[in-house]
Design a protein that fits this description.
Distance between the termini: 89 Å
Largest sheet: 9 strands, mixed
Number of domains: 2
Structural class: alpha+beta
Strand content: 15-25%
CATH superfamily of the largest domain: Umud Fragment, subunit A
Order of helices and strands: HHHHHHEHHEEEEEHEEEH
Number of helices: 10
CATH topology of the largest domain: Umud Fragment, subunit A
Radius of gyration: 25 Å
Helix content: 25-40%
CATH class of the largest domain: Mainly Beta
Length: 269
């Protein structure tokens, strides 16, 4: 249904193929290829289409809107009957989360960088493709091709020896129930903002996550899953600060080497 629905909604919005391409962040030729059924959009493009049209992703790919006289009639038909029982709401950990992304000219996903100064704005713009377009972007070819990645500049010393100002590159976690205890993650929540912690999964028992710092000065604390917006499993980090050597270990190693040399001398004697 994608090709027919794309043409239908483009007509409803009064857009040319070039204008549609600009809004979706793709080439005009791709819009033509999608409408003619010569190519299939990537998931990120489908998500952006659904957001632009104000419909669900499921409706975009399963409903033939071209058979409706206009958009309003089509949307009315999708609305549930008022007397039908509402299905039970899924638990927050089970809910389908749609991730907004940006892509380059070859339709490869970018890694968007969220600097410290943009952390507050990210809570309002994380689902807005236009906001993400304004963020710095880069690519890391050594990362696994499976999954979507985003980078966050962290602040504070709660995860020493990883220093404040380090950029953590995380892979998007769609199913939070699969998180293993002790996994280092960027956790985005409405109350805590953006934090880098080790996550301990308590979702099945209490719908809570326990967040631990590597720095023992900071105590663990719990966060309600209802408050969580996104979770990114840490996969790499970029830092301009080299780890400081542990002087006590260096001295110990020197003493051991001294003893070994003395033992060697005694054996020769």
């Amino acid at each position: 249904m994608i090709n027919t629905n794309l043409k239908f909604w483009r007509r409803e919005l009064g857009l040319t193929q070039s204008q549609m391409a600009d809004k979706l962040g793709i080439k005009r030729s791709l819009v033509g290829a999608y409408e003619e059924g010569r190519a299939e959009p990537k998931l990120v493009t489908l998500v952006n289409m659904a957001r632009l049209f104000g419909i669900t992703l499921d409706a975009l790919v399963t409903t033939d809107f071209s058979r409706k006289s206009n958009a309003k009639a089509a949307l009315r038909q999708l609305e549930p009957a008022t007397n039908s029982p509402e299905p039970p709401s899924p638990r927050p950990a089970d809910r389908l989360r749609i991730l907004a992304l940006t892509v380059d000219k070859e339709q490869n996903e970018n890694i968007e960088l969220v600097p410290q100064k943009a952390a507050a704005g990210y809570l309002n713009g994380y689902a807005d493709p236009e906001y993400l377009e304004e963020l710095p972007k880069f690519r890391l070819p050594m990362l696994s091709s499976g999954g979507s990645y985003r980078a966050f500049e962290i602040a504070g010393d709660s995860m020493l020896p990883i220093a404040s100002g380090t950029v953590i590159v995380g892979r998007y976690v769609d199913d939070w129930l699969t998180l293993k205890d002790g996994t280092p993650c960027i956790v985005v929540s409405n109350k805590e903002g953006i934090v880098f912690k080790r996550v301990f999964n308590r979702l099945k028992d209490s719908s809570m996550l326990t967040l631990h710092s590597d720095n023992p000065v900071y105590s663990p604390y719990e966060i309600d899953v209802e408050d969580v917006v996104e979770i990114w499993e840490a996969k790499s980090y970029i830092s301009s600060t080299f780890p400081i050597a542990d002087l006590s270990l260096t001295r110990l190693a020197s003493i051991v080497l001294d003893l070994q040399q003395q033992m060697t001398t005694l054996k020769k004697a």
